Each structure stands twice: as structure tokens, then as C-alpha cells.
Model the fold of this input.
Amino acid sequence: MVLSSFFAKPTEPALNVTLANLLLRRGLKALGEVQIHKGKSLKKPDVMIVLNAIKMILEGKFEGQRKMLENQCKKRIEEGLCDIAIAVEYEKNIPISDSLEKSSEKMNFTANVYWITGNTGWQKNVDINELVKMIRSAYTRAVSNDIVGEAVK
Done:
């Protein structure tokens, strides 16, 4: 399938699912565009990641929506949907190759990891492998600092 013949520009949901698949290939349990029932409401995080019982949500938006991403990540933690939230900005001009997955492999992100007591700050030019390292590092930090215990308090 030739992507450029179907899409002039990929949608955020398509990028979210593709990103989840790329994370899955790198050993993370990730699922894109999930639906979570919380009480009587339905929540729809972009990517859900579970790493040894630590729940993480990745929210992705195109560049220029950073404040919305920050608020979404903080809200996901406050709602109790996750222990760690990751904000990812997608490039506006994604180089289209023969598939969205191949294009996403080459894409750089800007990312910020949030937890109950703070965040890492925005980091530019993060490729998919560096994003995986950020996720694993956030997990290690959560376990070593008992962020989950702090959230319970």
C-alpha cells in the first residue's frame, strides 16, 4: 500500500496506533487508541503502556499544542488512569515514504515525561529508540522513588 496515495498527511490517531506498534516491536506492552471505562465515563488515551504493573499513558499531538498536551498528561494522572504520562509532539511535516510505519521510524519527536511529583522537561529530537529509553527510565524512576506510593498518600 502506498500511503501518499491515501493520505496527504497522516492523522493523529493513525500516528498513535503506529507509535504503539513501534513500541510493541521494541518490547513494550503498548496499545494505541484504547478505551478505558472509569466510573460511568469513557476515557480514550492515545497509547496505553503497561510495564511490570506500572501504567503509563502516552498522549500525542502535532507540534503547536504543547499546553494542551501538558494539561492532558496531568489530567490522566489526576484521574488515576496512569502512574506516568508521556507527552509527545509529532512533527507537522512527516516525511511520507511507502508506509506510515517506515515514515514514523525516521521521525523525531519532542517529548516530556510526567509523574505525580514533576516532569522531565521537553526534550527535542527524540527518535523512537530514545523514546523507549525515556519510557524505561521513567519506569525505573517510578519504582526506585516509589512514585506510586506517593500518589496513594
In short: Residues 113 and 138 are 7 Å apart (CA to CA). The beta strands are 29-32, 36-38, 41-43, 47-51, 54-62, 84-90, 109-115, 118-119, 123-126. Helices lie at 12-25, 66-78, 100-106, 128-145, 147-152.
